[in-house]
């Protein structure tokens, strides 16, 4: 407890302290005993995460012989230097169906390739050993991607093909607009969030580093995807939460609530992926991964994706709930843990409704082309839901949503117990109520 003589010094920044506390997390008092209990839980957990990172550290992505299929191709940068229009009949070998039937997609495509106007593009390779080399690419009139002069492109290199066919355009170069968009995002975060925004960007960089340097290479090395995902997600969670919200009791409660929810998601995901017989190998990309690295457990990879995908939303829910409980306690220090829980859970119900809807719509939006295909085929709802492609998304969505829903009461009760238990800490409830408000705030700044 501070002495009266010391009160004038801290008084001027009181207003600033309140705003700072709201954005960074209220510096509510936590007894020494509770800090020891929280540390007893989190220190062994953080130590286990560090040990796991060291034990499973991959040391890089394993080498393999490129197949030239899908993403597994050698690529270089290129630039369209010239585009001229030519008659498709002069550059295509496709033939119109003998029957002249143009009612089918293949028939219409063949007619277009014979009678339409094609684009003959000259492409120059701008990177790699063959920098400056040129080749010709013919673009059909109904092709989804049309080329124009000066456009940057990505070209694939096939060393075993005849020289005239070694290079081909596979995509547009989007590096500049993507980098600009990332810069605008970073600027907006820093302008609005200021120092907290800077820390959020640093935490985001740490998350990508863990993902690209640990999780992905470790899975490719043959480590258990579930174990790797749990270790990596835990490392991301610890770094992101403490960097963004500070090393406080409130953040520690959010970490524990997130951890409990992740464990629930892992258990439910493992159960229903096995029960539903989901292989995780449902498209060309997963098939290519399985072909290159047969030792990878694809169903485990699916479960790892569910855990990592749920982590970001879980952080938001648990931090929001702990903040709400801390603010309620500051508004009414006499409220017991049951009252805090009831008030916090009312806030959490609104959060649940919005977050679950957001999660479902996010997955539905990502799978929209697939859902359109089922709609075109006029498949029944049961048939669509039973297909493995859609069943994976259903399991992913529902398991993640169950974890989110569970995180609200779990985190709220933990926060209520922790923040209200301080009333029995040094000085007891009587000291908390008898002390002047000014002294209480000074004590909170020192012990929070």
How widely separated are the two ends? 13 Å
Strand line-up across the major sheet: 3-2-1-4-5
What integer is the average pLDDT?
Answer: 77
Q: Structural class of the helix and strand makeup?
A: alpha+beta
The major sheet is characterized as: 5 strands, antiparallel
What is the overall shape?
elongated
β content, as a range?
5-15%
Give start-end ranges of low-pLDDT stretches.
1-29, 93-100, 424-448
Number of helices, counting only DSSP H or I runs of 4 residues or more: 15
**Secondary-structure element pattern, one letter each:** HHEHHEEEEHHHHHHHHHHH
Kindly state the number of beta strands. Answer: 5
Compute the CA-based radius of gyration. 29 Å
What is the percent of helical residues?
A: 55-70%
How would you describe this protein?
The protein is α+β, with helices and mostly antiparallel strands. It is built from 15 helices and 5 strands. Strands 3-2-1-4-5 form a 5-stranded antiparallel sheet. The longest helix is centred in the middle third of the chain and has 46 residues, at 175-220.
Write the layout of secondary structure elements.
Elements lengths: L13 H11 L7 H25 L17 E14 H4 L13 H11 L1 E9 L8 E6 L12 E6 L9 E6 L2 H46 L4 H21 L3 H27 L8 H9 L5 H34 L5 H30 L1 H9 L4 H6 L1 H34 L6 H7 L2 H11 L1
Antiparallel strand pairs: 1-2, 1-4, 2-3, 4-5
Helix pairs in contact: 2-6, 2-7, 5-6, 6-7, 6-9, 7-9, 7-13, 9-10, 9-13, 10-13
């Amino acid at each position: 407890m501070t002495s009266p003589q010391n009160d004038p010094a801290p008084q001027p920044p009181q207003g600033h302290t309140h705003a700072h506390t709201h954005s960074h997390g209220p510096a509510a008092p936590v007894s020494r005993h509770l800090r020891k209990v929280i540390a007893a839980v989190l220190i062994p957990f953080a130590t286990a995460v560090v040990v796991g990172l060291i034990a499973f550290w991959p040391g890089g992505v394993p080498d393999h012989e490129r197949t030239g299929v899908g993403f597994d191709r050698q690529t270089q940068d290129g630039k369209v230097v010239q585009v001229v229009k030519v008659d498709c009949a002069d550059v295509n070998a496709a033939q119109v169906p003998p029957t002249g039937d143009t009612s089918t997609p293949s028939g219409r495509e063949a007619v277009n390739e014979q009678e339409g106007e094609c684009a003959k593009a000259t492409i120059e390779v701008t990177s790699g050993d063959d920098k400056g080399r040129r080749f010709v690419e013919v673009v059909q009139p109904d092709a989804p991607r049309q080329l124009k002069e000066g456009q940057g492109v990505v070209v694939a290199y096939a060393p075993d093909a005849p020289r005239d066919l070694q290079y081909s355009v596979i995509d547009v170069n989007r590096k500049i607009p993507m980098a600009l968009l990332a810069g605008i995002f970073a600027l907006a975060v820093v302008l609005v969030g200021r120092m907290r925004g800077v820390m959020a960007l640093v935490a985001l960089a740490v998350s990508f580093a863990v993902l690209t340097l640990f999780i992905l290479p470790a899975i490719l090395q043959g480590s258990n995807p579930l174990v790797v995902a749990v270790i990596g997600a835990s490392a991301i969670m610890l770094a992101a939460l403490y960097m963004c919200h500070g090393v406080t009791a409130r953040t520690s409660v959010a970490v524990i609530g997130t951890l409990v929810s992740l464990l629930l998601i892992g258990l439910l995901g493992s159960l229903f992926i096995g029960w539903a017989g989901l292989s995780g190998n449902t498209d060309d990309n997963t098939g290519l991964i399985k072909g290159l690295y047969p030792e990878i457990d694809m169903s485990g990879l699916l479960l790892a994706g569910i855990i990592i995908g749920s982590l970001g939303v879980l952080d938001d829910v648990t931090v929001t709930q702990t903040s709400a409980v801390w603010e309620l306690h500051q508004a009414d220090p006499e409220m017991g843990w049951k009252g805090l829980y009831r008030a916090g859970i009312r806030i959490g119900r609104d959060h649940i409704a919005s977050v679950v809807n957001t999660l479902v719509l996010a997955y539905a939006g990502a799978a929209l082309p697939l859902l359109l295909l089922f709609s075109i085929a006029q498949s029944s709802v049961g048939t669509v839901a039973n297909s493995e492609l859609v069943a994976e998304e259903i399991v992913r969505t529902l398991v993640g949503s169950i974890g989110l829903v569970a995180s609200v009461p779990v985190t709220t009760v933990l926060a209520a117990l922790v923040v209200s238990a301080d009333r029995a800490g040094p000085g007891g409830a009587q000291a908390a109520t008898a002390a002047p408000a000014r002294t209480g705030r000074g004590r909170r700044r020192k012990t929070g």
